[in-house]
Specification:
This protein has helices at about 15-20, 25-30, 45-55, 65-80, 95-105, 120-130, 150-160, 180-195, 250-265, 275-280, 285-310, 335-345, 370-390, and strands at about 90, 110-115, 135-140, 140, 145, 160-170, 195-200, 225-230, 245, 315, 325-330, 350-355, 365. By secondary structure, the protein is of the alpha/beta class. A hairpin with a 6-residue loop joins strand 10 and strand 11. The protein is globular, with a radius of gyration of 21 Å. It starts with 15 loop residues before the first helix and ends in a 5-residue tail after the last helix.
């Protein structure tokens, strides 16, 4: 039995996910596949480290000292193949919050922020709440994979009113990893048109076997205005702690960002994150996430085979990273409201609607980080519901 076959106990935890599960799904007993977080417990050695720290009984303001910065540098070198300097590391209160800080530091109200849709919807929420302008450059979809529409993207980056390009790598929700060549092209365009890149790598440790994950810092001459966000949030299910580390090599950009961050009364790191990082950024942590992603990959192959054999109107878009799966269900139903109502009320198959991420109607996102037996039960429930309507809604 795998350690990932055990479902996490959410009883009494008041998580956002619990509050959003439809009553029909809750009453069915079928596991929810909504959200990008685990339905199994995180790494036990990280839990042990946090518990030991908590038992000291002091949760005070915490300084990110030299040892912490060296720890981050070692992880980036050993696991991410990226050599960084300790002074480049800027702790922040979460990735989306830091995007809002960057927008306030580098842009003014009404400036355009470019995103590669479909993309994580909370970026756009931050853009709207910050009084900036959403500029969508939709990726091209050939029925199997997404690619950048370079002509459209360059046109939008050339507009001097557009100041920041959002890159999510690996991409949420499509699970695409941008190649070294694609990163180089983003960098060259950003340098050409003086656009700042906000590069979210929250899923960077969650890579499928045989796939390469690169970062802008590996380019021989990357654009100077690149902010890269890293975190334990996804690969260890720490999103609720609202902590991340930005890596900002450019001195002037870092100074401007820090001034805005501190103007917002940044206090200190969540004290529980120090023991978490010390346990996670280790060879044991690297081995754990590799094992976790191997389990996720087996879940993907099970879903993909199930769709092909039993539910051909549903197509799994092959993932390269993350533990979410982007599904094309347009052959079953391309009316999103009807589709999601059917999935919730008839199939008890709770997922994220595609248009939430600026995807096309008929797509949805589901998590693969669930115990395999429960995932199979959810698929069987979907099959039963689809069969009851003759295979097409």
């Amino acid at each position: 039995m795998s350690r990932f076959d055990t479902r996490v106990d959410r009883t009494g935890m008041s998580t956002v996910k619990q509050s959003l599960i439809p009553e029909s799904v809750r009453n069915s007993g079928i596991i929810s596949l909504w959200g990008a977080e685990f339905e199994f417990p995180t790494a036990p050695f990280v839990v042990d480290a946090v518990v030991e720290w908590a038992q000291k009984g002091l949760y005070a303001y915490t300084v990110e000292g030299d040892d912490f910065r060296q720890l981050v540098c070692r992880w980036m070198h050993d696991v991410r193949r990226w050599d960084i300097s300790p002074e480049w590391i800027v702790p922040v209160y979460g990735i989306t919050a830091s995007l809002a800080t960057l927008m306030r530091a580098m842009t003014t109200a009404g400036d355009g922020i470019i995103g590669l849709d479909p993309v994580y919807h909370m970026y756009w929420k931050a853009v709207e709440l910050s009084g900036r302008r959403k500029v969508s450059s939709r990726m091209l979809f050939d029925g199997a994979q997404y690619t950048v529409d370079w002509e459209d993207l360059e046109q939008k980056m050339a507009d001097p009113r557009n100041k920041i390009l959002l890159v999510c790598n690996p991409s949420n929700p499509t699970a695409k990893i941008f190649s070294y060549q694609e990163l180089a092209r983003f960098s060259d365009l950003a340098a050409k048109y003086d656009v700042t890149i906000f590069n979210d790598e929250i899923f960077a440790e969650c890579i499928y076997d045989g796939v390469e994950m690169h970062t802008f810092g590996q380019l021989p001459h990357p654009h100077s205005k690149i902010v890269t966000a890293t975190s334990l949030g996804k690969w260890l299910s720490f999103t609720g702690t609202n902590q991340a580390n930005l890596i900002i090599p450019d001195d002037q950009l870092r100074i401007r960002f820090l001034a805005e961050r501190d103007r917002e009364f940044y206090g200190s790191m969540n004290p529980m994150m120090l023991p978490a990082y010390r346990a996670a950024y280790t060879p044991e942590g690297a081995a754990w996430v590799k094992e976790m992603m191997s389990y996720v990959a087996e879940n993907y192959h099970m879903v993909d085979q199930f769709f092909k054999e039993e539910l051909p109107a549903f197509k799994a878009i092959k993932p390269e990273g993350t533990f979410v799966l982007w599904v094309d269900a347009r052959s079953f139903c391309d009316d999103e409201k009807k589709l999601i109502t059917f999935l919730n009320e008839k199939a008890f198959f709770h997922v994220d609607p595609g248009t939430q991420y600026n995807g096309d109607p008929g797509f949805f996102r589901m998590t693969l980080s669930v115990p395999r037996a429960e995932l199979r039960s959810a698929l069987e429930s979907l099959l039963s519901a689809v069969s009851s309507v003759g295979g097409k809604l």
